[in-house]
Amino acid sequence: MSGRGDGRGDGKVGGGGVELLVVGASWGGLVALQRLFRSFKRPLPYAVALVQHRGRDSGDALVEALASACVMPVVEVEDKAPLAAGQIYLAPADYHVLVGVGEFALSTDDPVSFSRPSIDVLFESAADAYGARCAGLVLTGANQDGVRGLGRIKRFGGPTLAQDPGEAESPILPGAAIASGVVDRVLALDDLAVALYGLGRA
Amino acid sequence: MPSPPSEPPRPFESEAFCLGRGETVELPFEKVALSAPNEETRLEWLEMSLLFEGVYRHYGVDFRAYSPTILLRRLRRRMEAEGVPTISALQDRVFRDPQCLGRLVDDLTINATSMFRDPSFFLAFREQVVPVLRTYPFLRVWHAGCATGEEVYSLAILLTEEGLYDRTRLYATDVNESVLRRAREGIYPLTKMREYTVNYQQAGGQRAFSDYYTARYDAALFDPQLGRHVVFARHNLVTDGGFSEFHVIFCRNVLIYFGRPLKERVVGLFYDSLARGGLLALGRRESLRFTSHESRFEPFVASERVYRKVSL
User: Fold this and answer.
1) pLDDT of A124-179, one tens digit each?
2) Tens digits of residue pLDDT in B39-57
3) Is the Cβ of A55 closer than 8 Å to some Cβ of chain B?
4) How deeply is A198 buried, as exposed, middle or buried, from its count of CB atoms within 10 A (0-12, 13-18, 19+)?
5) How many Å is the maximal CA-CA distance in chain B?
6) Which of B302, B117, B122 is nearest to B203 (CA)?
7) Phi, psi of B219 (to 5 degrees)
8) Which of A145, A164, A170, A184 is flagged as catalytic?
């Protein structure tokens, strides 16, 4: 568990609590995300940005499947859209999503770990922009995209969580994150909601 | 390699800088540096703003209004390739080695593109935009930020098949000379042709895609006839103004690399460069929302981000 100091901006978990949660999922992610989202009974008190690995031709089906499972609005990120608490922002097909100060940026740069959108790209930019006020969560996934980015969040003092690899459809992503020593808490999907509401508190 | 400007650049002003047309644009770095979450990132943003200020003063190449978030990511990639640990160390090399500047400029200005990228866009263009274009006796199209030209040739193919190409003049511009050279050649890796063929078919292509290129070794050379109405020219959206009046402006996935104030300015330039009822085509996840120009355009094909100029 990372420290819970008050020093905003000094590398400890901030006095104002988390302002942004970034989530990464790959193989098996849709089912896991739907299950997680169904366990939210009210909106989270911060913005959520999400990369689910997806093909470049995947259309609106993913955002619709996620929105139907969630009390929070789920939208695909548009360039320079502002971040708002209580919203879930899904990375669109064939773009990387980056987080700047209070707004998103998109890029069509080369795939990272064969992926565009890439979890690492989102996580690293979020850590740079939000520091300890950014939390990271990795779910089921069949490659290691996301481990490096989660490490940056951890290094800047943001809380880091992983789905229990024992229940993940593909344990490679959460397992690799845990093995790298960058995960504060390992939780089952059904226990994540409580932990995530807790992150928003000062 | 960019040469130094003939006149010395104007002195740096912390809030804003002057552009070629006497306008000012707010610099995004300031805001970013102020809200840096910790010492490490604060220092990095400072180094980045010093680097680009220096590159502007020393070489006259201006990235100061680009998106800081994306610049940082691309800088880190360049640092890794150069084997330098900090932005300051990269700055040292960039200042003393113009070839290193060239590599950095390429990293920051070359945007990936492909033929018939987003087939649904080109299909919508064929089905919904082409009927409008048929009503014009002569067509002027501006492809702003054409990079290596894949979308230019895609459009030339589409307009050829729709019987419109002979009354079209396509102005394809980019800030980077080296990509323009490649665009003029129209030679692309043969390994890409399978993907492009699928895109072409999904975009409503009517022929065999291989009719348009000649395979030679590992390269596909596109029919030079496709370039006969294309003018490739250097144009910098950061500093240059308009140069004609157009019926269609393509600027797909270019404005995403600019900071918000620069995007504002460039969309204004597009508005001024469009004929009455002219069309602006952006990338699939770009929009005019979050800009002050939203009400000056109306969606024409909303799902594919094609907008029509509203004449007030």
Assistant:
1) 999 999 999 999 999 999 999 999 999 999 999 999 999 999 999 999 999 999 99
2) 999 999 999 999 999 999 9
3) no
4) exposed
5) 60
6) B122
7) -125, 150
8) A145
Q: Which candidate in B116, B285, B289, B303 is best for mutational testing of the A interface (most A CBs within 10 A)?
A: B285
Does position B224 have pLDDT exceeding 90, yes or no?
yes
Q: Provide the ipTM.
A: 0.88
**CA A33 to chain CA centroid, nearest Å:** 11
| Interchain CB contact of A132 with B (< 8 Å) | yes
**Across residues A45-64, what is the average pLDDT?**
92
B34-60 residues labelled b (16+ CB within 10 A) or e (exposed): ebbbbeebbebbebbbebbbebbbebb
Measured CA to CA, the distance from residue B33 to residue A83 in angstroms comes to 18
Distance of CA B221 to the CA centre of its chain: 23
Q: Which of B38, B108, B117, B284 to probe the A interface (max A CBs under 10 A)? A: B38
- Residue-level pLDDT at B151: 97
Contact: B68, A100; criterion CB under 8 Å:
yes
pLDDT at A14: 40
The tokens describing B118, both together, are: 């987003």
What is the arrangement of strands in the sheet containing A74-76, beginning at the earlier edge strand? Answer: A74-76, A88-90, A47-52, A20-25, A134-138, A160-163, A185-187
Taking the model in full, what pTM does it have? Answer: 0.90
Which residues, 6 or more positions from B103, have their beta carbon under 8 angstroms from its beta carbon?
Answer: B78, B81, B82
Tokens of B97: 């080695």
Distance CA A83, CA B192 (A): 37
Instruction: Let me know if A96 is a catalytic residue.
Output: no
Lookup result for tokens 């930019």: A125
Q: What are the residue ranges of helices labelled H in chain B? A: 28-34, 39-59, 68-82, 87-96, 98-109, 119-124, 130-133, 150-161, 177-185, 193-202, 260-273
Q: For B176-191, how does the pLDDT look when each residue is reduced to its tens digit (9 = 90+)?
A: 999 999 999 999 999 9
pLDDT band, very low/low/confident/very high, at B5 (cuts 50, 70, 90)? very low
Rg (CA), chain A: 15
The backbone torsions φ and ψ at residue A20, rounded to the nearest 5 degrees and listed phi first, read -145, 130
Q: How confident is the model at residue A3 (pLDDT cuts 50, 70, 90)?
A: very low
Distances (CA, A) of B50 to A27, B47, B57, B268: 42, 5, 10, 29
- Residue A59 has a pLDDT of 80
